[in-house]
Amino acid sequence: ANEVYDVVIIGSGPGGLVAAEYLTRDPSVSVLVLEAGVSSLKATGGDNIPDYIRSEGWTVFDIPGEYSSVAFPSDNNGRYRIDWVTSPGPLYLGKVVGGSSSMNGMLYFHTADSYVDESKWPYDAATVNANYDAIETSFSSTNLPSTDGKWYLQEAYNLLRDGLRSQGGYREVDINAQRNAKSKSFGHPPFTIKNGLRDSPAKTFYGTASTRANFKLVSSALALRIVQSQGKATGVVYSFNGQLVTATLSGRGSVIVAAGAVSTPKVLIQSGIGPQSQLNLLASNANFPGITTNSTNWVVNNNVGNHLFDTIQVLTTFKHPTMKVFNHGSRPQAAIDQYVTQNHTGPWASPDPVLVGYEYSSGGNQFQITGFCHGFNFGSNDLTEFGVAVYLNNPRSRTKCEFKGDGTYHFNLDSNLYTNADDVAAMDQFSSKLQMYIEQAGSTFVQRRGKDGANHYGGTCIPSNDASDASRCADGTFKVLGTSNIFVGDASLMREGTVNPYGFTMQIGRQAGLNVHKFLSSSVPPPTCSAIEENTDYFGNDIGSSKRSTAAECCRDCAAHPSCKLYVWFEGTCWLKSVAGPKSSQPGRRAAVLQTTSTPPPPTCSAIEDSTDYTGTDIGAVPRNSADLCCADCLAKAGCTVFVWYQGWCYLKATTGTKVPNATGRRAGLIVTTKPPTTCSSSIENDVDYYGNDIGRTQRSTAESCCDDCKNFPGCKLFTFAWGTCWLKNVKGAAVAAPGARAGFVDSNAA
């Protein structure tokens, strides 16, 4: 039986895991995270453990010194990298628990407050900074990664410091402390490293969430499509162990797509959400069942996958007689021995970046300088070489992610990603200026490689609160335009590039969690179930299950399933059932039946009418200090339909009589009653649809709720309910077997 979840998160990267941890703080919210890759860090059950540290059990993902070998393997092994992008390739994007945050260089930066305005981010700087503060309670960052408090591999740092400070006029700073004064600054890189080990979301946020009963992560689970109709998601189909599995959403449920800026558009398009041209192209391809030829179910959003950017980089090599190369990829034995025997100290406690600096031009270009303890003159045996990567963090170049007609997935087919003329000119000019700084300080230029990307992708689903924004793909809550419950939670949302995006993506995850939790709280009014029967089981007829900490929480899941009539809760699992089987006494089991007819809400009072009197018959009076307190007295008094408050007294009346306006000092209120729900002319039929003749639709959690909608819709005679939608019909079409669908009539002549 399929399990039911409130939230399905596609991707366990820094956005997805942070969102999952936040959401599961609420024990009533069940979360499933789908990860296409395998385990990574020790905390996730990773098993790639180097022999030199096998006794401690740390994997290559945990150990900072293994970064280069994991991220850029010499054998080009793609086991840990995404493999569904046909071109360009190979891509250095993670396909493991934690995503790229388990494989990156652990560089953790705060964005400047100005980035909020530059990128038209839908939240202000105070909110972004509050998110940073919140996530930083779960992990550590430091610019002193070795546990002995010493900096290692400082030769390149010192050489670059001389050039930047004496020739370029740069300031030496604490990078994150000076986030709002970046230009012409440099310092030691801040890393998410603690105790000489990677301190990333796969260890911290996953570690916390994994202890909760309402959290589940499935690895080696490739999300294939979101099950949706006209933007309303009801589940996610994924492949696992060669089988197709559907994770079903609860009635209030939602999906967060956090597969990364390159892969999130792929998931959306495969689900029938994307540019018109892409959906038309793939509609007849049998390998895309989430699109189909029925275009009425599509969500046309022409900005899905557009506006992709990547940080542009130029790798440069210099040399100096005092430089001592340290190549992590060669696994220097002395450094490894120190790390293992001296409490994770030394060069192996950090990756290869040793310096980070910034310079912003008057034309708005934001350059980053990253110094390395080795050069980029690949194949060289010169041990005096060191490298400098020059980044243009906010390039103008853009391209798109797209499928070809043969079903293969690509980006940068137009070759525009690194070729914008303004970007090229800016990079050439700044690289030459930086070379001058370094040469004038005594180093020798060796080589400059061509322009390529730094794998800092973003821009493929831009959020905005401005409905006129031509680039808008999602609203300000990160909900994809055209959908009602599908959100994005990764770097796809970044309109512009900035510093290494790892930190900003984590705060995106935090904001996505906040947004979706608010959505869940307001989505569907709670259904009603009978009083819970203690120590009771109803055998058989299981049609689904969900993980809940209490039996009462099962009611919503039963209401969300179109065929559920009752449930039995036992040891944290709600067993949803279509029929009440044999009843038995079973210790620890708790059962309840879904109430299929709504009890009308109790009467309430109208808004207070100022300077108003009603002349109706008085049936009582109660002293009260204010008019709003009269409502309860009128509701409690048999026959009371209206009250008038005047000079400290509530005058309760059986009839309204004549309404008198301009009655100075008097304040009145009426009792408001709600009509009982419309009932259908016959019992609701299960597992059947009456095909065609649709004249409208509404979103409801149960079939019984469709009755009123049909009754109030002109011309409606019957309806079919399926997965949260009431399909309203004016004519009874042919009966079609449809497992899970439920049909009912409000006009007995139509039956």
UniProtKB/TrEMBL annotation:
<dbReference type="InterPro" id="IPR053208">
    <property type="entry name" value="GMC_Oxidoreductase_CD"/>
</dbReference>
<protein>
    <recommendedName>
        <fullName>Glucose-methanol-choline oxidoreductase N-terminal domain-containing protein</fullName>
    </recommendedName>
</protein>
<dbReference type="InterPro" id="IPR000172">
    <property type="entry name" value="GMC_OxRdtase_N"/>
</dbReference>
<dbReference type="Pfam" id="PF13450">
    <property type="entry name" value="NAD_binding_8"/>
</dbReference>
<dbReference type="InterPro" id="IPR036188">
    <property type="entry name" value="FAD/NAD-bd_sf"/>
</dbReference>
<keyword id="KW-1015">Disulfide bond</keyword>
<dbReference type="InterPro" id="IPR007867">
    <property type="entry name" value="GMC_OxRtase_C"/>
</dbReference>
<feature type="domain" description="Glucose-methanol-choline oxidoreductase N-terminal">
    <location>
        <begin position="260"/>
        <end position="274"/>
    </location>
</feature>
<dbReference type="Pfam" id="PF14295">
    <property type="entry name" value="PAN_4"/>
</dbReference>
<dbReference type="GO" id="GO:0006508">
    <property type="term" value="P:proteolysis"/>
</dbReference>
<dbReference type="GO" id="GO:0005576">
    <property type="term" value="C:extracellular region"/>
</dbReference>
<dbReference type="Pfam" id="PF05199">
    <property type="entry name" value="GMC_oxred_C"/>
</dbReference>
<dbReference type="GO" id="GO:0016614">
    <property type="term" value="F:oxidoreductase activity, acting on CH-OH group of donors"/>
</dbReference>
<dbReference type="Pfam" id="PF00732">
    <property type="entry name" value="GMC_oxred_N"/>
</dbReference>
<dbReference type="InterPro" id="IPR000177">
    <property type="entry name" value="Apple"/>
</dbReference>
<keyword id="KW-0677">Repeat</keyword>
<dbReference type="GO" id="GO:0050660">
    <property type="term" value="F:flavin adenine dinucleotide binding"/>
</dbReference>
<dbReference type="InterPro" id="IPR003609">
    <property type="entry name" value="Pan_app"/>
</dbReference>
